[in-house]
Amino acid sequence: MLFGCVIFYNGGMREIPYISLDVLLRTLVAEKEALVVGAVRAVVDELSEYRAVPREELVDSVAGVFDAAIMCLESSAPVDEVLGGGREGVYEVAPRRKVQGVSLASVLRAHRLALSAAQRRFMQMAERSGLPFEKRLEVMGIMWEVGEWF
């Protein structure tokens, strides 16, 4: 037996927003300073050891994590290939932080907090702008790889 169904819609059709990943990344870069400031605040609030780290140095580190994520999102190359040249700088952070009284666990957590700030903001913008779900998953996968790289 066949059943027919007719749906009546009385509301107006509204346009579903859509944005390209390139435009969304440019917007994220434009908000970099505010994201870095927020991430630095989160690191210092959660990890009291970081109060001994000079603020400018911490800002540079957090900005570096943000920049690494953006570079990887803009590139079609694997994360290790994109970031591989900066490995020496990453290896210098932990020993410097140890001298400043910061544990390795806190260094790793600080990197995660910095990357999470970018991830959260990206997801807010992606949802609001209509970036396709598959593209959001792809971006989150790349950001996860960046976190693992650090």
Q: Would you kindly provide a brief summary of this structure?
A:
This protein is mainly alpha-helical and 150 residues long.
Note the main attributes of this structure.
mainly alpha; disordered N terminus; single chain; 7 helices; 150 residues
Please count the beta strands (DSSP E, at least 2 residues each): 0
**Number of helices, counting only DSSP H or I runs of 4 residues or more:** 7
Q: Could you list the spans in which at least 5 consecutive residues all have pLDDT below 50?
A: 1-13
What is the overall silhouette? Answer: globular
Helix content range of the residues, please? over 70%
* Largest β sheet strand count, sense and barrel closure: none
Structure write-up:
- The protein is an all-alpha fold.
- 71% of the residues lie in helices and 0% in strands.
- The chain contains seven helices and no strands.
- The radius of gyration is 20 Å and the shape is globular.
- It starts with 20 loop residues before the first helix and ends with a helix.
- Residues 1-13 have low confidence and may be disordered.
List the helices and strands and how they pair.
Blueprint: H1 21-30, H2 32-46, H3 55-74, H4 79-83, H5 87-99, H6 104-129, H7 133-149
Helix pairs in contact: 2-3, 2-6, 3-6, 3-7, 6-7
